[in-house]
Q: What sequence folds into this?
């Protein structure tokens, strides 16, 4: 590669730098027309919205990928399959609201 050719990273960096400079110039020209207190509130709100949007676009796909990996690992071990499809009857009594009212039930029959 010759000295005047840029790498992809350098091109992306220059693009982002120019975009930020355009944004900063536009922000400064808009905020000159409003009082300083209001300008500060607008500036902080816009930047917080930008950071929130960037974090959303980074974290949501990451969480989805992590969830997919976890599900695939669980399926490969067979633990999720057994948990989802094989519901065994519990022999110990449970306290809940059933057909005969609120009480202790075992195998669908109220015992207390």
A:
């Amino acid at each position: 590669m010759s000295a005047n050719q840029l790498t992809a990273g350098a091109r992306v960096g220059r693009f982002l730098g120019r975009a930020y400079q355009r944004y900063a110039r536009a922000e400064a020209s808009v905020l000159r027309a409003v009082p300083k207190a209001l300008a500060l509130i607008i500036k902080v709100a816009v930047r917080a919205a930008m950071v929130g949007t960037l974090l959303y676009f980074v974290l949501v796909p990451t969480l989805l990928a992590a969830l997919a990996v976890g599900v695939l690992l669980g399926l490969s071990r067979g633990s999720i399959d057994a948990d989802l499809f094989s519901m065994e009857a519990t022999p110990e009594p449970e306290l809940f609201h059933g057909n005969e009212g609120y009480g202790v039930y075992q195998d669908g029959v109220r015992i207390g």
